[in-house]
């Protein structure tokens, strides 16, 4: 979306390969030849669309006979009221020996886990949680970098029907307490420190200060990152991650299937207008929305290698984690995106044959200023898509990607937010890419742009809104049983003011 509409696309789908994309296959399965018509059907017939999507993406669980109750209420609509499923079961359904994840901690640490190994690690941590008294509805919090242990702890937590919440270890003590203090977790998983731009950052004193002010904690688990055997002094009921092997190992993860709208994640608003709001997202809503965005809009296929540069305090971490449900290998990274003379992420992309590279508009802008030329310095043959979010991608950012990275690539500028832990508008492998524009509205998302009078507009600025309910709407706020904050904070308005409506297709 931009004030100027360029008539010539920067990229167009290859007619010889576009038919193999998830979006094209879904269009074929539903009988639609144009994306505009498919999108219109998806918002006018939401019950049929979301039910069809469940089947097409092979979601694991019981769908039930009814899809939507009170579909005219926003908020208030109830999706798949008879469904029983578990988010973690969908992410761990593949038990093959293929790679589940690769991790780079700058140029300091590299690790790999197969899907079989990931399943075993989740089972091990699940047994620890059970032994620690964690049950359905309890909260487990992670103050962690984007490590394999973070993914393991999250999957073990939600497999039990407990609720996961995470924050980045670069937050201050007050910032962490403002968030986790509201949700009273039983277990905190933290790290001894992390690397940033080649320097070690010690977190032990911060951890002690946080734990001392969280009386709800029964256990604190410390993940070693800087030190193989970090000291635990000052941490009440602390257990090193490496000692969890003493807990009885169980080959199979136990999956507790829960209601579609059972709490899965608690994410936090920025806190710019007071204490951060605790936004609660559901098992079914997150799963279906992410399956749709990965398999259809991002064309993530089994065996693809999916990367997003993110901390665990940003919703893109949750979005990245869901890639396991579509058969992707997750490429995890922790540290500065400009480590090793600004080239570390492109080193990673080349070495691991990355297929999908997710980043921010600020990273692309900074790479432009650094005059990086990754298309010349790195083998990016495997790369098929680049995602940009966090802020609007400038027309010059589009130019840099197609000039200095690759001409034959889908560049998807996307916008959504923590409120929906997903996207309102995003990429599309069957549509062209135009300079400075977002490609399309998401399927099932009744997105429009309104002026100040609440009227839809085209080719002028307005507020991006979503007019109808969808499954990934948050189910509420923690400690808000009367729903007092729903109307004020869980609105249909996206964090993208000043959008210019184009909607070419």
Residue share in β-strands: 15-25%
Helix content, binned percent: 25-40%
Q: What is the number of helical segments per DSSP (H or I, 4+ residues)?
A: 15
| Number of DSSP strand runs | 27
- Which stretches are low in confidence, meaning pLDDT under 50 for 5 or more residues running? 1-5, 486-502
- Name the CATH homologous superfamily of the domain at 18-67 and 284-500: ANL, N-terminal domain
Shape: globular
Stated plainly, the CATH topology of the domain at 18-67 and 284-500 is called Rossmann fold
- Please summarize the sheet with the most strands: 7 strands, mixed
Would you kindly provide a written description of the structure presented here, covering whatever features stand out?
- There is one protein chain.
- By secondary structure, this protein is α/β, with parallel strands linked by helices.
- The longest helix has 17 residues, at 115-131.
- Residues 1-5 and 486-502 have low confidence and may be disordered.
- The chain has a seven-stranded mixed sheet.
- α5 (115-131) packs across α6 (148-159), α7 runs parallel beside α8 and α12 packs across α14 (395-405).
- The chain has a domain at 18-67 and 284-500: Rossmann fold, CATH 3.40.50.12780.
- Helix content is 28%, strand content 23%.
Topology diagram in text:
Layout: H1 22-30, H2 35-44, H3 46-56, E1 68-69, E2 78-79, E3 84-85, H4 87-91, E4 99-105, E5 109-114, H5 115-131, E6 139-143, H6 148-159, E7 163-167, H7 173-183, E8 187-191, E9 193-196, E10 199-202, H8 204-211, E11 219-223, E12 238-240, E13 258-259, E14 263-268, E15 278-282, H9 283-297, E16 305-308, H10 315-321, E17 329-334, H11 344-351, E18 356-360, H12 361-369, H13 374-377, E19 385-389, H14 395-405, E20 410-413, E21 415-417, E22 422-426, E23 440-441, E24 447-450, E25 461-466, E26 476-477, H15 486-489, E27 493-500
Parallel strand pairs: 4-17, 6-7, 6-8, 8-11, 11-12, 16-17, 16-18, 18-19, 19-20
Antiparallel strand pairs: 1-2, 3-13, 4-5, 9-10, 14-15, 15-26, 21-22, 22-23, 24-25, 25-27
Helix pairs in contact: 2-3, 5-6, 7-8, 12-14
């Amino acid at each position: 979306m931009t004030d100027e509409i360029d008539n010539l696309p920067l990229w167009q789908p290859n007619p010889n390969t576009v038919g193999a994309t998830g979006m094209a296959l879904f269009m074929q399965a539903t009988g639609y030849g144009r994306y505009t018509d498919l999108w219109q059907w998806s918002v006018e017939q939401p019950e049929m669309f979301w039910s069809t999507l469940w089947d097409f993406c092979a979601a694991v669980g019981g769908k039930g006979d009814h899809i939507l109750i009170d579909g005219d209420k926003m908020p208030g609509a109830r999706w798949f009221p008879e469904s029983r499923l578990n988010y973690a079961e969908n992410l761990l359904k593949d038990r093959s020996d293929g790679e589940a994840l690769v991790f780079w901690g700058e140029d300091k640490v590299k690790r790999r886990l197969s899907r079989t190994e990931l399943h075993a690690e989740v089972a091990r941590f699940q047994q620890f949680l059970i032994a620690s008294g964690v049950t359905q509805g309890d909260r487990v919090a992670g103050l962690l970098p984007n490590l394999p242990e973070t993914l393991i702890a999250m999957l073990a937590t939600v497999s039990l029907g407990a609720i996961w919440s995470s924050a980045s270890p670069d937050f201050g003590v007050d910032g962490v307490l403002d968030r986790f203090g509201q949700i009273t977790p039983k277990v905190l998983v933290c790290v001894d420190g992390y690397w940033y731009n080649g320097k070690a950052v010690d977190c032990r004193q911060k951890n002690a200060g946080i734990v001392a002010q969280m009386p709800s904690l029964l256990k604190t688990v410390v993940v070693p990152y800087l030190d193989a055997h970090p000291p635990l002094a000052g941490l009440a009921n602390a257990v090193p991650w490496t000692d969890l092997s003493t807990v009885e190992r169980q080959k199979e993860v136990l999956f507790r299937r829960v209601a579609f709208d059972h709490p899965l994640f608690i994410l936090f608003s920025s806190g710019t207008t007071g204490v951060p709001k605790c936004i609660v997202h559901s098992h079914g809503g997150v799963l279906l929305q992410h399956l749709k965005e990965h398999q259809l809009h991002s064309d993530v296929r089994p065996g693809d290698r999916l990367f997003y540069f993110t901390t665990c305090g940003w919703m893109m971490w949750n979005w990245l984690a869901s890639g396991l449900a579509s058969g992707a290998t997750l490429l995890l990274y922790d540290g500065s995106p400009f480590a090793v003379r600004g080239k570390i992420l492109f080193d990673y992309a080349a070495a691991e044959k990355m297929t999908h590279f997710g980043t921010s508009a600020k990273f692309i802008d900074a790479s432009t200023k650094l005059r990086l030329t990754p298309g010349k310095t790195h083998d990016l043959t495997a790369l098929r898509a680049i995602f940009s979010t966090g802020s609007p991608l400038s027309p010059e950012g589009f130019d840099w990607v197609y000039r200095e990275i690759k001409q034959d690539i889908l560049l998807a500028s996307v916008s959504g937010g923590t409120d929906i832990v997903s996207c309102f508008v995003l990429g599309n492998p069957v549509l062209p890419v135009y300079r400075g524009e977002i490609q399309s509205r998401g399927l099932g998302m009744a997105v429009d742009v309104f002026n100040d009078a609440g009227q839809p507009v085209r080719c002028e600025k307005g507020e991006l809104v979503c007019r109808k309910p969808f499954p990934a709407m948050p189910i509420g706020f923690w400690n808000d049983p009367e729903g007092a904050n729903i109307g004020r904070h869980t609105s249909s308005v996206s964090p993208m003011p000043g959008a210019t409506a184009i909607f070419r297709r």
